[in-house]
Amino acid sequence: MNGAPPVAASGLLFNSAPLHALVLGLVVVSLCMGVAAWSIWYERKFAARMQNRPGPTEVGPWGLLQPIADGLKMLQKEDIVPAAVDRPLFELAPLLVVVASLGTLAVIPWGDGLVIADLHIGVLFALALSSLMLLPVWMAGWASNNKYALLGGMRAIAQGVSYEIPLLLAATVPIVLAGSFRLGDIVEAQAGLRWFALWPPGPGAVAFVLFFMASLAEANRIPFDIPEAESELVAGVTVEYTGMKFGMFYLAEYLHTLIASAIAATLFLGGWDMGPLGAGVHWMVLKTLVLFAVIFWIRWSWLRLRADQLMALSWRWLVPLGLVLVMASATWVVLA
To answer: What span, in angstroms and rounded, lies between the C-alpha atoms of 158 and 160?
Structure first.
């Protein structure tokens, strides 16, 4: 057995790849956590510019150290736990919501071979983990023993179940066009700027918009922030959380939108490949950040939908549209 090649499992090699995956995972998680933290500063400056305000300016140059100040302030806040809560679930929910967000990073390819776990079912793994965010959100609403939090949790479950279906249908389009569930294969199928957001004409672009809209609903971002509508539910599922526990929910929302942007860039915008301009991790990062900024632009431009409008949009329009897109992409593959 001395000369035998190392045994592969899920795209990783037993001899040296675990260390490589561990180092890469630490780097990716650290960078994404940093981007998510400073994206709060960016969104505040972005919103301020749209509203003709200066935004954060006092803490550091241009207010750049504001996220650090916010984090220190949350760490110093008193940890208040109401007497009537279900304490084990109440304490566990903030941790699980962050873990569910970070777990998706394992299968996202940032470059050719630059992936923590190169799974052959990468798309299914990523979408399954992203949908698990509903469970800690529901746990937080139920365990808080608060009517506003419970209503927010119920809204989150209804919204998540409704928009998970068009999200999966939209993600099926690049799977069908590439003929693989592996995210690396989907990127390679878009080589030469044949992005699935542009090709085939029509179904690809509509599937990209559908995936992006469903991702906003999954992350509870405006116009789909029904579970934490402050004008109706105070703070939704986080109404009883204080200090860093509230901060973990806040951070998980930004992490989820960042990761959703990375998945959309991989499935529909060619990932790390940029055709004649070359390929590299910088292209993947650029596409992800552009989509991330578009999410902020949407938040500060659109109004929140009502709960009935939210459900009607999904079941009456987006789900049938997703089915049509899957059939159209399958027909394209057969005819091509």
So the answer is: 6
- CB-based contact 208:197 (threshold 8 Å): yes
Note the pLDDT of residue 9. 42
CA dist., res. 217 & res. 233, Å (int): 17
Q: Are 28 and 110 in contact (CB under 8 A)?
A: yes
Assess contact for 325 and 169: CB atoms under 8 A: yes
Burial of 89 (0-12, 13-18, 19+ CB in 10 A): middle
Q: pLDDT-derived band of residue 169, with 50, 70 and 90 as boundaries? A: very high
- Dihedral (Cα; 30, 33, 36, 38), 10-degree rounding: -70
Q: Hey, CA dihedral for 156, 167, 249, 233, is it positive or negative?
A: negative
Length of the chain: 336
Task: Show the beta-strand stretches assigned E in 4-115.
Answer: 8-9, 12-13
Range list of β-strands (E), the chain: 8-9, 12-13
Residue type, 294: V
Answer for the pair 108, 278: CB distance below 8 angstroms, yes or no: no
Task: Answer whether 7's CB lies under 8 Å from 14's CB.
Answer: yes
Structure tokens at 8: 């592969």
DSSP-derived secondary structure for 294-308 = HHHHHHTTSPPPPHH
Residue 61 corresponds to which tokens in the numbers above?
């140059």
Provide the pLDDT for residue 7: 41
Rounded (5°) CA angle 259-263-267: 170
Write out the two tokens for 20. Answer: 């490589």
| First-last CA distance in the chain | 47
What three-state secondary structure class fits 225? coil
pLDDT at residue 289 tops 70: yes
Report the candidate in 328, 114, 153, 321 with the shortest Cα–Cα distance to residue 233: 153
